[in-house]
Amino acid sequence: MPGKRLKLGVHLTNHASVFAFTLAAMLAGVRVAESQQEPTAPQVVAAADLQTAIDHLGDLDYAMRTDAGRLVRRTAPAQAVPALLKAVADHRDGYVRYRALVLLTGFNDSRTHDVMREALHSPNDRLRTVAYSYFEHAPDLSMTAELIAGLDKETAEFVRPALVRALAALGADARVQPILIREAGRGEDFFRSAVIEALGDYRAGYAFQTLTAVANLDGPLRDDAVLALGKVGDKRAMETLASVQRVVPRADQPAIAAAICLLGSNCDLHQNYLIDTLKFADANQGYQELLRSATAALGTLGTSGHRESVQALMDIGAPSQDPTRARVALALATVALRNTAGFLPLLQEQSKRSEVIDLLAEGFDMLEEDLDKERFFAVVRRTYWDTTQPAATRTLMQTLIAKLDF
């Protein structure tokens, strides 16, 4: 399965088979089928078993490393956190250090902040990516100067977007604003796209003129800038959107419709247009660009809290085949990560919940945002462990845990 493949460039340690056998035996009772009962609270495990699990976080075998992560997540925080801190600091396998750092974020421990700050200076690209992503979700104004300085030194292709988002989360700081405006206008399109998306996600009104200028230019960044203008919410953008709408091809119209909806103008009309467009692209082969843009636009609306858009992705995507299925799965998973509080209650209401969760799982397999997925997993686990939750809610959480392999 696509999601079970190892990511390119990842070095995984191939442990001796005796250890694999030991872990397999140890974890035999940890896997949870949908019909079986998930443990009702964090568990205390033997110290040797916990260490063995941590050592296997980077195992070549998907089931082995997944079960290892599952055991660590279910270990009592007082036991798991010190073991993870030690693994991050000195484990011989760099990939295990990375996985340990990701898992650490799920325990909400006060020591995580200092560990993440140290990880910003790690030669391991993956550790730096996790650290920058962490500070996006836990912004710290005292780190503004350090993050700005990092922007001049960080050149790794997959690390820099996380750093940009960490800075965008600090956008109220006047020192950050000119830096991000500068970055939106220079460098490769891949980097500029990440900056423009972050400016929209963090409602960077200070970048209105910059985003408007990009939206008025024909090119691959136009859709990004249009959607960012919608997310910023400045109604002055309507003039630009109306102008652009008259000249762009059909495949670019969905982004404009989503942006106008986000600005609060005839949202029902534009949302229905997007849903109809996705249905058309699903039923008629050969409209790949229209499929891509309609799905992305509905995902953007869903992330912003428009339940009808999320429902449409579920309804159209669950019974679909590729290429529609892959596009919708990715959009749905993105909504789940970025708007978890809005997504889970809507998922609870679905009559075909199993099919939708299958679609969600496929989207999770395609996403690279491991820290964001860990944050989602932590919410699901804590909701399941909260005995005050209704039985139906806890049943849904157990199903998610089983189907998403965490």
Blueprint of the fold:
Elements: H1 17-26, H2 47-55, H3 62-74, H4 77-90, H5 94-104, H6 112-119, H7 125-137, H8 144-153, H9 160-168, H10 177-183, H11 189-201, H12 208-215, H13 222-232, H14 237-245, H15 253-262, H16 267-283, H17 288-303, H18 307-317, H19 324-338, H20 340-348, H21 353-366, H22 370-385, H23 391-403
The shape, in one word, is globular
- DSSP helix fraction: 55-70%
> What value does the average pLDDT take?
91
Oligomer: single chain
The helix/strand order is: HHHHHHHHHHHHHHHHHHHHHHH
Give the C-alpha Rg: 22 Å
Which stretches of 5+ consecutive residues score pLDDT under 50?
1-35
Number of H/I helices: 23
Number of strands: 0
How would a crystallographer describe the biggest sheet?
A: none
Class by SSE composition: mainly alpha
The portion of residues forming beta strands comes to under 5%
Give the distance, in angstroms, between the N- and C-terminal Cα atoms: 17 Å
Question: Your description of this structure?
Answer:
This protein has 406 residues and is mainly α. The longest helix is centred in the last third of the chain and has 17 residues, at 267-283. The protein is 66% helix and 0% strand.
Short synopsis of the structure:
The chain is 66% helix and 0% strand. It contains 23 helices and no strands.
Features:
406 residues; mainly alpha; 23 helices; disordered N terminus
